[in-house]
Amino acid sequence: MQLEFVSDDSVTLSLRLIGDVTQDAYGPSSEPLSDAYGADVYQRAVLIHLGEAGFIDSRGVGWLLVCHKRVREAGGILVLHSMTPEVAQVLKILRMDLVMDLADDETSARAKAIATTDA
């Protein structure tokens, strides 16, 4: 799993997750989002493109939930979007749409982030 920078404007930080969504590559004490972008990242609107993720395991879901919680507690928003069918199916089965902010594409994700930050 690798987080790749896409863009950063005054409203959103856009990232692309490449590879399988799992925290195995980082270890339990590491948090790739804050390690790469600092602790202030949780106060932002963060969009993560999952279109290049072919697999998600329980550790990956756990990592996304922890990120979601930290972002919410800090006043930001984390929106996952453009998921592969495999990842979308796992998140749907686990009913993550009830807990996390999910969007079909980047345009929808950006609209959701802007609506939340303007509220």
Give an overview in words.
It is a single chain. The protein is an alpha/beta fold and 119 residues long. Helix content is 38%, strand content 25%. It has a single domain (2-118), classed as STAS domain (Transcription Regulator spoIIAA), CATH 3.30.750.24. It has four helices and five strands. The chain has a five-stranded mixed beta sheet. Helix 2 links the parallel strand 3 and strand 4 (77-81). The longest helix has 17 residues, at 58-74. The radius of gyration is 13 Å and the shape is globular. It starts with a strand and ends with a helix.
Q: Could you list some keywords that capture this structure?
A:
single chain; 119 residues; alpha/beta; Transcription Regulator spoIIAA; 5-stranded mixed beta sheet; 4 helices
| Rounded average pLDDT | 91
So what's the overall shape?
Answer: globular
> Helicity, in percent?
25-40%
Beta-strand content bin: 25-35%
Number of helical regions: 4
Number of strands: 5
Termini separation: 33 Å
Largest sheet: 5 strands, mixed
Q: Class, according to the CATH hierarchy?
A: Alpha Beta
Rg over CA atoms, rounded to whole Å, is 13 Å
- Main sheet: strand order: 1-2-3-4-5
- Do you know the CATH topology? Transcription Regulator spoIIAA
CATH architecture: 2-Layer Sandwich
How many structural domains? 1
Structural class from helices and strands? alpha/beta
CATH homologous superfamily classification = STAS domain
Order of helices and strands: EEHEHEHEH
Query: Low-confidence runs (pLDDT<50, min 5 residues)?
Result: none
